[in-house]
Design brief:
- The structure is a single chain.
- By secondary structure, the protein is mainly α.
- It has two domains: 44 residues; 205 residues, Orthogonal Bundle (MetI-like fold).
- 78% of the residues lie in helices and 0% in strands.
- The protein contains 13 helices and no strands.
- Helix 3 crosses helix 7 and helix 6 crosses helix 9.
- The longest helix has 35 residues.
- The two termini are 20 Å apart.
Length: 265
């Protein structure tokens, strides 16, 4: 009983510690004045109206969504064939690419940002939105590689052999047996890339920050002029997108399993 109570207390304190900054940021966004007050004073939606009516903030928000969506699709397009080659053929080249992807994900962001800055400058292709999209896709591709690889490993080979025995061709096996099992893992990998790309600042700023101002870049740029509650509005929108995205993942599959964990029996 004491052990269970201690475990519950620890988890409750951990949840409060993690949620407190989010609650404070959300509360500050409802202040009626341009002050960093919490609890909020003169509760109002004035800063939400200011955010959605300001072309600069909306442009930054829209660019963030575009970059994140396209980066997730690009990363998935890279990860899916690599994970399939590893699962189906144990391809050495695919294994090497997976290793390189893991190494790039572990490197500090500032190192990666300099690498991409030098690379795009060498190509003479600087300050373009596609630079940020492809850079994010390469850095975060290890996430869909991990989830899609987990999905392929969860495919029961007995089902594959049974389908072949019944006369199914390779394309039919992929479409009717493998795809339904792997698809939730593909979607979860895309969601992870989307959320990380949405919030990434250093690489986006170094690669194309002067020309492609995503929402995180705009927030940091505006900090030079002092605090503005519209920054908190952007943070709340990002939090809402994250909750929505992971809720969607939970609806299409077993979220703990999609994250690589084992559900307690």
């Amino acid at each position: 009983m004491i052990k269970a109570a201690g475990k519950f207390l620890f988890l409750a304190l951990l949840a409060i510690f993690l949620a407190a900054p989010l609650v404070v940021v959300a509360g500050v966004s409802f202040n009626g004045t341009q002050r960093m007050n919490f609890p909020p004073q003169n509760v109002s939606l004035v800063w939400y109206r200011a955010f959605f009516s300001d072309p600069a903030w909306m442009s930054a928000f829209s660019l963030s969504l575009i970059v994140a969506a396209l980066a997730s699709l690009a990363a998935g397009s890279i990860a899916l064939p690599v994970a399939y080659a590893i699962w189906k053929h144990r391809s050495r080249m695919a294994l090497f690419l997976e290793f390189v992807a893991r190494i790039s994900f572990l490197l500090p962001s500032i190192v990666l940002s300099i690498v991409f800055l030098v690379f795009w400058s060498w190509l003479g292709h600087v300050g373009r939105i596609e630079d940020t999209i492809l850079s994010h896709a390469v850095v975060f591709v290890t996430l869909p590689l991990a989830t899609i690889g987990l999905g392929f490993r969860s495919v029961d080979w007995a089902l594959v052999e049974a389908a072949r025995t019944m006369g199914a061709r390779e394309g039919d096996v992929l479409r009717t047996v493998v795809r339904p099992i792997v698809m939730p893992y593909v979607i979860s990998g895309l969601v992870f890339v989307f959320i990380l790309s949405l919030n990434e600042y250093i690489i986006a700023y170094m690669v194309a920050g002067f020309e492609v101002e995503t929402l995180p870049i705009k927030v940091f740029n505006n900090l030079r002029m002092g605090f503005q509650p519209t920054m908190c509005v952007g943070a709340v929108l990002f939090m809402a997108l994250g909750v929505f995205a992971f809720s969607a993942v939970a609806l299409i599959g077993d979220l703990p399993k999609l994250l690589g964990g084992n559900r307690a029996q």
